[in-house]
Every structure is written in structure tokens, then in C-alpha cells.
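Researcher: We're teaching a course module on how sequence relates to structure. For the next exercise, students receive a sequence and then see the predicted structure as C-alpha cells, so they can try to spot secondary structure elements on their own. Here is the exercise chain.
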Amino acid sequence: MAHTSTQTVQSKGIYYGLPTFPADLKNLKAIVAGANGISGQHMIRAMSQEPERWSEIYALSRRPPLDKGSLGPRTQHVPVDFLTAPEEIAKILKENNVQADYVFFFAYLQPPPKPGQSLWSNAEELCEVNGRLLRHCLLALSLASIRPNRFVLQTGLKQYGGHLGPIHTPHQEDDPRVTIEPNFYYLQEDILFKWCRQNATQWNVIRPSFILGAVKDAAMNMVYPLCVYAAVQAHLTQPLVFPGDYVAWDKEQIQSTAMLNSYMSEWAALTPAAGDQAFNAGDDFPFYWSRFWPILAGWYGVPWLPPDANAEYKVMEMPHTPRGYGPKAKIHYTFTLCEWAHRPEVQKAWAEMMQLHGLAQSPFDDIERIFTFTELALIVSWPWQYSMDKARKLGWHGYVNSHEAIHEVAEDLADLAGGVEAWDGLLVAVGGDSEDLALPIGRDAAHAVVHGGQDGDGLFGDVDAGEDRSRLGDAREAIQDHVTRGKCDNCR
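Model: And here is the predicted structure for the students to work with:
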């Protein structure tokens, strides 16, 4: 007879199928390392929703979280720099009486790549600095006599080599490592596994994809550059042009909302059967740019343009085939977001918006850092699809509609900025609540096609770029109807 079991799940806002835990699971203590980043701040928010379960949360980072609201009454910030000596870190932990049943590690440093190289092209430097962060944290725990029940390390999609070219889909946790170049995720896993064996601690590795979340430091955040792009195009009364080809337009690309990742990390840490296991972390929602692009344009009241099949695209060929067979991938694009952000008319528009709406932050002060991550998501031609079977079989059923999640992230960004008034120039024409996403809200926007193009490469390192022989036409001429823009009430 087949084994049957019953589980109780719950919903929190737009998040469904979330786990429940025994009522006697309470008064737990946790460390969140890297508390100032997008994942660390959301982990603190998730645990702060359950004050009886998590009685003490220690937020470890060099600076306090920029979002002071993420520090609840049970959360204490402890200033720690994981690049300092483990002895110094341990001394700080002891002085602050830090104790932990569970540790969630999100600390990450991105060394700047060499000029003209891609975001992750400096693989050796990434290994050196991020290996050191984790090693120093673990050694400090030992020196401070902190031995958690579970240590949860967050890594990500690069585990499967998707940043290097086409890989096996869907991505499964037991896929072999891709050893074309050094990967700091592998180094961190090996460091953690050894320490856990030596300290009788169980581990988890959580692997999200593109993380959707709202924090004031917008690097590695896909939503913020999308909002900037759409808002500026609305200000210029120009359409939302998709920069890739139809392969990129129609590819599936799993998203990983930061709050859902945090709920999953908590579930993994507190589930006995999940000990010493790695898990993919995704929204479990089929995300395609072809479906989302009209929705984004509808929020901002601008026309949207799909790829132009007749355009003469730039072509970049990837140097590797991470799955070990098949042709090298080619990426076709007419422009990148970084190229767009360098255009004088775009920067002039933002200056006007800053003056008009009192905007204090400019994403154009560090263009490559802010826009590269999102332009990668837009124009890559191979799919990124997670298998969630492993987690499901152990009782994880969390789900969120990624379109609704992006909408909620936009709302949160507006709140972090101090209200809608300061951000209505950035987040324009977002109408209705997230429930509106069930409707084809972009259906009334004008739909025009223009030829595209811009000079410049730099998304990936060591790639072959084809000659660009086309120019972006005057998009204003493609707009037949007057584009109206309203006040943002529902975007961050």
C-alpha cells in the first residue's frame, strides 16, 4: 500500500503553499551573515514574522541594514567584516553574547571586473574573496564556541554553469559541477562540508536564480533597472523596446523572489529530512519576457515593441558549451541596457526627472554595476529552468506568481524611497493592485516595431561580436497615440 501523509500549508500575501511548523518550535536563535544585502534583509523580514519561533536574530554585516524597518525588536545588528581575521570576528561575537541554533550565510563580494570584461569574468578573484568570507565566518564560529544545528549557505544559478552558455534543463541539484573555469560556489561548498563534518553540524545549500527584492542598494537587482528603463522611456514618450531577439523573447527564465527564498531557507533549516541537502530555489512560475513585457509597458502607460525579425542584430558567440556537447550559443541583440544608459538623451531625461520629482538616487552614477545584471537576463538566448522536484518530495510547496512579485517589489522600492511623491517620476503609470496582473493590462498600449541598434559590447568577456550595421530609429515617430502618464500608486 502506498504511503500517504498530510501536510498543512499557509499563505502570506502573494505567497502560497508555505510550510507550517510545530507550535513547540520556539525561542530559536539565528545568525544572518551578510544582513545588509537583498537576501539577508529578506531573511530577517521572514523570521521577524514569527517572533515566538525566532526569539533572537543577530544581523552580521559591516553596516546596519539600510532598511531600518527590517530590524525588528528581536534583531540586533552586530558590526562584522568577514574579511578581517577570524580571531577579531570571534572577539566581536563574544562581546555581543551572540549565540545561534541556526546560521544563514548570504555574505558576498563582487570584485570589479577588468575593463571590457563581463560581470563574472574574474573567476579567480571571486573565488579568493568569497572563499575567504565564508572561511573566516566558520573559523570565528569555532573560536567563539558557537556550534549551530544547521548552517544554510546561499549560492545560486552559476552552480550549473548557465553564465557560460547552454546547460542541461531543467537544472537539477545533482547535476555535475562545470569545471571550465573556477567557481566560488564549489569552493564555498567544499569549505562548508568540511567544517560541518568537523563540528557535527548539518548544512543546506540554497540555489536561487535571478533574485527579486527591494533594498536600497540596487546592484544585482533585476527589478530596479527595469523600472528605470520603463520610467525614462515614459518620460521621453518612447516605447519599451526589447533588446534581444525572438529566442530571448520566448525563452523560459526562472525567477527567485527574495521573500520566497527566505521562507524556503527557513523550511530547509527546520526540516530534519532536509539536512545535508542542496535545493533549487525558484518561484515555480513559468516566466517569459514575451508574456511580461506587455505587462510592464502597461504599468507605465507606454507602447511596447517585441523583437524585430527584420533587424540586423549584433551577434556574440559564447566561447564554451557547459553541457559538454552541441553548438556554442549565440546571442543576438540590438542594444544593451548599459549602452542605453550611456545615451546622452537618457541621462538628460533622468536629470529632468530628478529635478521634477525630487529623486535623490541616480542609477547612472555606476551604470555597469546597476544595469549589467538585468541586461544579461534580457538578451541571453538559452533557458534557465529549475527542477523543484527534490524539495517538493520533502514537503516544500511554496509558490509565487513572478509578475505579482515584481509588482510588489516595485511597491516596496517606493516605500524605501520615502513615499510615492519622490518616486512617481521613476515608477510611472502603475495602475491598480497586484490582482490586476491577472488581466492583460498592456492590451491598450500602442504596439509598433522599429529597427534597433547601438555600438558597444561588454556584457560577456571573451566573445565574438558581429558587426552592427543598424541604428535605433527615432522611436517617437513610431508612436501613433499620445502616451499619457499618471502617478505611481502601486510600484516601488
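Model: If you want an answer key for the exercise: Residues 123-143 form the longest helix (21 residues). The first strand starts at residue 9 and ends at 12.
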